[in-house]
Amino acid sequence: MDLLTLLQVLDSTVRLATPLLLACLAGLFSERSGVFDIGLEGKMLAAAFASAAVAALTGSVWIGLLAGIGAAVFMSLIHGLASITFRGNQLISGVAINFLASGLTVLIAQDLFGQGGRTPSLIGAGRFEPITLPFAEALSGVPVLGPIYADLISGHSILVYVAFAMVPLSWWVLFRTRFGLRLRAVGDSPEAVDTAGVSVAGLRYGAVLICGLLCGLAGAYLATGLQAGFVREMTAGRGYIALAALIFAKWRPVHALWACLLFGLLQAVALRYQNIHLGGITIPVQVMDALPYILTVIILAGFVGKAIPPRAGGEPYVKER
Amino acid sequence: MDKMPAWADAVLVPLISILLAALLSALVILAIGESPLDALTLMIEGALMRSSGWGYTLYYTTNFIFTGLCVAVAFHARMFNIGGEGQAMIGGLGVALVCLFIPFPHWSVALLVATLAAAVFGALWALIPAYLQAKRGSHIVITTIMFNFIAAAVLNYVLVNLLRPTGAMDPATATFPAATHLPTFQDMFATPDNPLFRGAPANVTFFLAVLACVAFWLVMWRTRLGYEIRAFGHSESAAKYAGISPVRITVVAMLMSGGLAGMMALNTTMGEAERLVLNATEGAGFIGIAVALMGRSHPVGIFLAALLFGFLYQGGAELALWTSIPRELITVIQALVILFTGALDNMVRMPLERVFLALRKGA
Amino acid sequence: MTQAPAIELKGISKAFGPVQANKDINVRVMPGTIHGIIGENGAGKSTLMSILYGFYKADAGEIFVAGRKTDIPNSQAAIAAGIGMVFQHFKLVQNFTVLENVILGAEDGPMLRPSLARARGVLKQLSEDYELSVDPDQLIENLSVGHQQRVEILKALYRQADILILDEPTGVLTPAEADHLFRILDGLRAQGKTIILITHKLREIMEITDTVSVMRRGGMTATVKTAETSPEQLAELMVGRKVLLQVHKTPARPGAPVLQIDDLRHTDRHGVERLRGVSLTVHAGEVLGIAGVAGNGQSELLEAIGGCVDASGSILLNGKALPLSGPGSDGAARRAAGIAHVPEDRQTEGLIMPFTAWENTVFGYHRDPACQTGPLMNNAAIKQQAQDKMTRYDVRPPNPALAARNFSGGNQQKIVLAREIERDPDVLLIGQPTRGVDIGAIEFIHKEIIRLRDAGKAILLVSVELDEIFALSDRIAVMFDGKIMGERAPESTDQTELGLLMAGVTASQAGDPIAAVDASLHQKERREARAHD
Q1: Lowest-confidence segment of B74-83, C9-18, C88-97 by average pLDDT
Q2: Of B139, B145, B156, the CB nearest to A286
Q3: Where do transmembrane segments lie in this chain (chain B) (predicted)?
Q4: Is B224 on the interface with C (CB under 8 A)?
Q5: What is the spatial distance between Cα C525 and Cα A286, in angstroms, rounded to a whole number?
Q6: pLDDT value at position C242?
Q7: Residues contacting C126, CB < 8 A, separation 6+
Q8: Which chain B residues contact residue A98 at CB under 8 A?
Q9: At C1, is the pLDDT very low, low, confident or very high (cuts 50, 70, 90)?
Q10: What is the DSSP string of C144-212?
Q11: In this predicted model, what pLDDT tens digit does every residue of C51-87 receive, in sequence order?
Q12: Arithmetic mean of pLDDT, B148-165
């Protein structure tokens, strides 16, 4: 494999890892606060649709982005209402949100555009264009490093850079700020937070809102950055892969980056090569499709390091004496 | 004392939840510029007023009974099996294998063997998540989700690379031999002067589903195993105290759950398509969640809920056919039912409890 | 001019549904004193303190802090008013350090670093002032119970609490740890802090408080100066009648050994060895009482004998060895062999709360052929027998179709007892038989235990209530740190001697008891902490 091919695969990895990373960090905030979220898929889908639809209607991707975030946050609030305020089953609420998004997006798309559940293709200011970083052209002649800078690092849409910047930012918020301390505490021992005079519900709603915001970015990137418009079920299980990555990363931001890049790479390889031939053995493309899930099951089984979720995760908080 | 009578918790809470879901669905229909009343009329016309409509409604109902029971068994053992979809896919594989490769003399024998195959394949697909949950504490919700995707990949590989007839384009098996074709309602009930259920896919598997409901009730409330599953579901520490093995119950309940999900494939694969296609399950595994929640994990409730969803599915298809409302409306309704009966149930229960408390004080 | 009370409660009432937890409570707590609040379980002490700490909202009444009327709608307000609380079940984040736990909710600003730095200094000062030494960088999950409690106190002091409420602080402590706690409280009082001590133990009240208020059935029956009262008077105020625990029984006539336990060992799933070679013999016709501070292996002992957990060593029942792990070692097998088990926690072990009473009357025995007809369970017969049992054991209401959760604690316990006794076992294991049970039922249960003893059963009793151990046992064995420290006859020992044994001090070390206690506790802590690594 030559450098150019390698760069193309890695470039595609970065693009495909971006929505995973944003959704994975979204889940990280939610689950670190004790609210399990298997509704990442639905929130991303809602955001993808809302951003594409509004971008198509207004011609501005930025207004579209806002709409996408708004849609995902709305879904998050439903999840918060069910799992925080009414102490319902967080898993079931997540399932409901996935279906809600899956149905509503097509329903509204059909009503608005009448194109069989898709939005019109986005053009011009309706989508995020790649950004060329300074000196990319000038440096592209430099052997090895030049193409890496020009083709791999430069030339992505703004949301890709935002996603990667979110990794250190999330780490810093979680481990260096008061909010992060309280957030981690509420996911482990909500009663400690409550008796310390801090609102458990407030913190969890905060986390759930951040989750919505990040899912909004993820969905908007899918429909306005990675692709040019919304098609039905366009998230295609990415929310679940992000969930898998979150477990793989053991709920830690920097590990999440590696997990998402790994799963992004698998997707990129599966996209580029149908079947891989490795010294006489043919690996069918379906193995690539299934690999993230298989790896996650192995991690969950504790055969390679144990993944222990936040202690209070999934449990609604009920005041006790 | 309980805050409200048991009947209110069992009947009133789900009923109000469903009414809320229906109300919101009506609003959604209004919002896209259609009339909810017209839509409902059309759905009833298409799903319940003609025998062929019933033939479709009961076909869907059959699917949902199986997947609803699948989710309910797991619920009783305090597990959430989201893997019904994958288990049904693999169950379908089992059905296809026996139908394609065993020369059956008669459909009844074929049904018997295929039922066994479907249940065994579905159960085996649930076995690994069950074992990991029981022995290693791996969260069964996540593992079953993962296994849905793995099942899809497996089925995709098998259909594309192994079972697809040479020259065929779509990823599906060859049509099953005629001897495995199950009698449809049309075969059973139509007479020359009364052509009932014409062209409808409902078939003999429906009765199998009803039988499964009865068996479910017997096992859960009349046998030692059911007693142990329910006890374990309420308190694991109590189960240990009583000498009930958590590992055994987790595995057995999941095997039953996966088996029921697998049996759903009989209806879609053997009963309807008469070959195995890639997307045979059509999300029925997930609808089982809504059905089990609405039916309160009780077979009578599950039967009624499955019937309601069967009606919604058939009605939704009619809507998509005659109006501009896409079938996804049903997905929305399904989401709302899950949301209100499964996650927001306290929103309904809390005010109700207050009402009953006030009534009791007043009395 | 007298000083304003640090806390004054006027007319506090609180109801949970139909249950009146507090009714018209009036009390004044003077600054710089230790004020005890004593009462039985369920008398309403914890509810009252939860109202004071803003956990619950009172239905009626007023709170005055340092003479000023104060609204306490939440914990934040309580902290602002200078009130700190140490709960019975600690409210600590297990995977945080001591320092992080201390600053949680009381950070100086949005950034952590300055808060942590300042807290480190303050903590050092507080540790020195009040004998509260604890490693600020240690994770909570690696600390012993006693040290975790210190963190809770430090949390309150860090928030500059002037009033400290401690809810049953000694329940999980050994006598020596409790003594250390009392020294800390003494020091706090000397610095002018006000302390409210909630307990149901008379000894603690007499030892350390200045004033004591007595609660009974949600009401405040009296507030007296400790120096002017006696344990007898307090006990009478608490229960409303003179004698608390008196069981009429004849001397035991022990027969042949029925249950012989040798070198029993059990390691829990965290890797801590909970039973470290326990050997015991229980004879027919006697009650062997196991005394000890909660968490020293008594629960595991019952569970190991009852088949709830695996163990090693040997258990002989009537001379026959029982398998301790693998097939045939579960609870069902033990029951079949003749060991009945009334578990310590009836709500999470002994009963399935949403099941009906009749379903619960066969729980654990549901595999008996008597419960089956063909492949199905014989529900009609089970119901019929349940009705009989409930009548005989005076379970109220005697309605087998009612869910277990709808019975009171005492009646739930009677259902368990009826189930376990009815099969005529050789051995009865019984843990905390009267925890959370009303007085009338306590008497019934105690009589029932003695009746069984006189019928020739071997009874192993575990209780954290020393009074109960003394009242029922024919022999007393004391457990500490997974071992039996010694056996005594109830008539030839007293609470002091048992207290030392409960702290792990044997007769040979008794010359310098305090040092010995410290040493043995230290050992236990180290062992448990090691297992966590």
Answers
A1: C9-18
A2: B156
A3: 12-33, 53-75, 87-104, 110-128, 140-160, 200-220, 241-264, 276-295, 302-323, 329-348
A4: yes
A5: 53
A6: 42
A7: C132, C154, C157, C158
A8: 335
A9: very low
A10: -HHHHHHHHHHHHHHTT-SEEEEESTTTTS-HHHHHHHHHHHHHHHHTT-EEEEEES-HHHHHHH-SEE
A11: 999 888 899 999 999 999 999 998 999 999 999 999 8
A12: 94
pTM of the model: 0.88
CATH number of the structural domain spanning residue A236: 1.10.3470
Average pLDDT over residues B267-277: 94
Q: Residue A300: which of B142, B149, B161 has the nearest Cβ?
A: B142
B145 contact residues in A (CB cutoff 8 A)? 38, 240, 243
Domain ranges of chain C: 7-238, 257-338+425-532, 349-424
CA dihedral C453, C457, C463, C468 (to 10 degrees): 0
Question: What's the whole-number mean pLDDT along residues A119-134?
Answer: 89
Q: Say if the Cβ atoms of C377 and B224 lie within 8 Å.
A: yes
Q: Is A85 on the interface with C (CB under 8 A)?
A: no
Task: Write out residues 54-83 of A within 8 Å (CB-CB) of B.
Answer: 78, 81-83
Tens of pLDDT, residue by residue over B234-271, are 999 999 999 999 999 999 999 999 999 999 999 999 99
The answer on pLDDT for C515 being more than 90 is no
Question: Using the beta-carbon criterion (under 8 Å), do B326 and A91 form an inter-chain contact?
Answer: no
**A321 CB near a chain C CB, below 8 Å?**
yes
pLDDT of B4? 78
| Confidence label for C93 from pLDDT (cuts 50, 70 and 90) | very high
Question: Is residue A316 in some structural domain?
Answer: no
Is B2 in contact with C406 (Cβ distance < 8 A)?
yes
Chain-centroid distance of CA C42 in Å reads 13
- Where do the structural domains in chain B lie, given as residue ranges? 57-349
Which chains would you list as touching B if contact means 3+ CB atom pairs under 8 Å?
A, C
Residue A75 is part of which domain span? 3-300
Mean pLDDT of chain A: 91
Looking at the partner chain, which of B82, B142, B347 has a beta carbon nearest the beta carbon of A95? B82
- The structure tokens 């896409």 sit at B326
Instruction: Report the gap between the CA of B198 and the closest CA in chain A (Å).
Output: 30
CB-defined contacts A:B, below 8 A = 154
Residue A45, judged by CB atoms within 10 A of its CB (0-12, 13-18, 19+), counts as buried
Helix (H, G, I), strand (E, B) or coil at A121: coil
State the pLDDT at residue A112: 93
**Fold category of C257-338+425-532 in CATH:** Rossmann fold (3.40.50)
Query: What chain C residue is nearest to A196 in terms of C-alpha separation?
Result: C105
Residue A76 lies in a domain: yes
User: Residue C377 and residue B218: Cβ atoms within 8 Å?
Assistant: no
Closest CA to A156 of A128, A125, A123, A137: A128
Contacts of B223 in chain C (CB under 8 A): 375-377
Are the beta carbons of A196 and C112 separated by less than 8 Å? no
CB contact under 8 A, B138 and A294: no
**Is A309 part of any domain?**
no
Rounded to an integer, what distance in angstroms lies between the CA atom of residue A79 and that of residue A94? 7
Number of domains in chain A: 1
Question: Superfamily assignment of C7-238 in CATH?
Answer: P-loop containing nucleotide triphosphate hydrolases (3.40.50.300)
Task: Measure the CA angle with vertex C117, ends C111 and C122; round to 5°.
Answer: 125
SS (H, E, C) C352-409: CCCCEHHHHCCCCCCCCHHHEECCEECHHHHHHHHHHHHHHCCCCCCCCCCEHHHCCH
Q: Tokens 């998540």 identify what position? A: B129
> CB A293 to CB B142 under 8 A?
no
What is the tens place of the pLDDT at every residue in C198-256?
Answer: 987 777 888 899 999 998 888 898 899 999 988 778 877 876 654 455 678 888 889 99
Same fold, C7-238 and C257-338+425-532: yes
Residue A125, in any domain of the structure: yes
